[in-house]
Amino acid sequence: MTPTPLRASLALSLLAATLPLAGAPQENPNRPPWAQKNKPAGEKSPQSTGTASANDDPVQDRTTIKVKVNLVNVLVSVLDENNRPAADLPVEAFQISEEGNPQKIEIFETETKQPLDLALMIDASLSAQIQMPTERAAAAHFIQQVVRPGDRLAVYGFDENVTRVADFSDKIPALQDAVRKIPQGAGTSIYDAIVLGSKSLAAQKGERRHVIILVTDGGETTSHSDFEAARKAAVRSDTLLYTILIRTMKSENGRNTAGEHALQTITETTGGAIFFPDSVANLGIVFDQIDRELRTQYRLAYYPNPRGPADSLRNIEVSVLGDYKVRHRKNYYMGHE
Fold first, then answer.
1. pLDDT value of position 248
2. Among 125, 144, 201, 294, which is least packed, fewest CB within 10 Å?
3. CB within 8 A of 16, min separation 6: which ones?
4. What region, left, alpha or beta, does residue 111 occupy, with left being phi > 0 and alpha being psi -120 to 50 degrees?
5. Which residues of the chain fall below pLDDT 70?
């Protein structure tokens, strides 16, 4: 018997009621916090039987969108009024924002155990040659002190060129020997050194902290790279820059003060610190201070909002309750975490 139009219409209505809507969004429990949707009151999550396969629901297959957003890691140094690391602060003492918007701290570590990749870069130009013997001795001591199980360090010398004297390794005697063999040259390519060191650190595998220790007299003369290229390279590689600027001339007359200020700007942008020892004899004290800071850093991480232009520069601000000095990287490029 041929079905009447009324019966056919009723059958189609019943069939449609039993199928999920193709356009209805399906909640993904693996989404980061910014993407989670609040369920209406009284709505229950679907129960998993443990036997369903990915092919059981082709409609859900088509409508589920998986979004992967990398955590943004921020290393934070907190110092008290005596410039000593402030340890054991609770997560409640920290606030972090991106572009002025408060962020939820997803990971919080005191005295982070993330291993270190360090690039030790020593000025070997003519202007720094008088200090070289003392610099080498202090650097060799620093290597002995800072490299711990799981850490890796590379040694560079820079003049008109940047030379990697020892590749990333944890072999302390070989690294100390490399420091003593840094060749001496003429010019000073500080920006080139920062660019090369940052790229070398970015190429290392695994979740590790990236650190450049730069020892120089601040007299930039021969780099092919400029200030902006050096700054971008350090930011993109998430590198902490610690600069030890040995001022052989106390008076500003005759010093490259513009170069010193530029180097200080790059250093502070990364969340690192710049030091001005009175003489090379105080290098050991500075190296000790850097080592202590690296061992007492806090690690914060959050999920950023992925919306916005690709490769955009995002500004970060971290504040800590109390009378503390706080250092951290000031920004990052979206998509380069």
1. 65
2. 144
3. none
4. left
5. 1-69, 248-256, 336-337
pLDDT score, position 88: 94
- Whether the CA torsion 164, 169, 170, 172 is positive or negative: it is negative
pTM over 0.90? The answer is no
> Are 165 and 100 contained in the same domain?
no
Q: What is the pLDDT of residues 144-189, one digit of tens each?
A: 999 999 999 999 999 999 999 999 999 999 999 999 999 888 899 9
**Range of the structural domain that residue 245 is part of:** 116-294
Q: The domain spanning residue 179 has which CATH number?
A: 3.40.50.410
